[in-house]
């Protein structure tokens, strides 16, 4: 949560403190909870995103995200982007044959 701001107006986990400060400035009371949706980690070439990571790295990112979700009290929930991999979007928690991918287990554990 201490990284520099994300480029091109994107908001990732390292921007959550900056995001909540901006929300608090715009909406004085009550402090809004964050409903984070459309989150995922591509492990193959993704047609929409500009990056991909190896499955082991993806597992680390999911574990780190779950730690942040548990500690950062302003987060109401974290929703995954797609449950099952597609050719266009390889961010699923399950592969095309509905088998759990490595990211499934740390996400399920929360």
How would you explain this protein's 3D organization?
- The chain is an alpha+beta fold and 110 residues long.
- It has three helices and two strands.
- Strands 1-2 form a two-stranded parallel sheet.
- Strand 1 (34-39), helix 2 and strand 2 (75-80) form a beta-alpha-beta unit.
- It is globular and about 45 Å long.
- The two termini are 19 Å apart.
Q: Can you give me a brief rundown of this structure?
A:
It contains three helices and two strands. It has helices at 16-26, 55-71, 104-109; strands at residues 34-39, 75-80.
Q: Which radius of gyration do the C-alpha atoms yield? A: 15 Å
Q: Estimate the strand proportion.
A: 5-15%
Distance between the termini: 19 Å
Query: Percentage of helical residues?
Result: 25-40%
Please tally the helical runs, counting DSSP H or I stretches of 4 or more residues. 3
- Tell me the major beta sheet: 2 strands, parallel
Q: pLDDT average, as an integer? A: 88
Q: Return the string of H and E elements.
A: HEHEH
Classification by helices and strands: alpha+beta
The count of DSSP E runs of length 2 or more, i.e. the number of strands, is 2
Low-confidence stretches: none
Tell me, what's the shape? globular
Describe the strand arrangement of the main beta sheet, using strand numbers: 1-2
Features:
31% helix; two-stranded parallel ribbon; alpha+beta; 2 strands; 110 residues
SSE diagram, text form:
Blueprint: H1 16-26, E1 34-39, H2 55-71, E2 75-80, H3 104-109
Parallel strand pairs: 1-2
């Amino acid at each position: 949560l201490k990284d520099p701001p994300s480029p091109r107006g994107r908001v990732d986990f390292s921007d959550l403190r900056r995001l909540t400060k901006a929300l608090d400035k715009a909406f004085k009371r009550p402090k809004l909870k964050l409903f984070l949706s459309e989150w995922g980690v591509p492990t193959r070439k993704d047609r929409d995103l500009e990056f991909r990571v190896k499955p082991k790295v993806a597992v680390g990112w999911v574990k780190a995200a779950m730690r942040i979700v548990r500690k950062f009290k302003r987060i109401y929930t974290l929703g995954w982007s797609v449950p099952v991999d597609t050719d266009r979007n390889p961010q699923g928690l399950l592969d095309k044959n509905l088998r759990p991918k490595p990211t499934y287990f740390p996400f399920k554990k929360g």
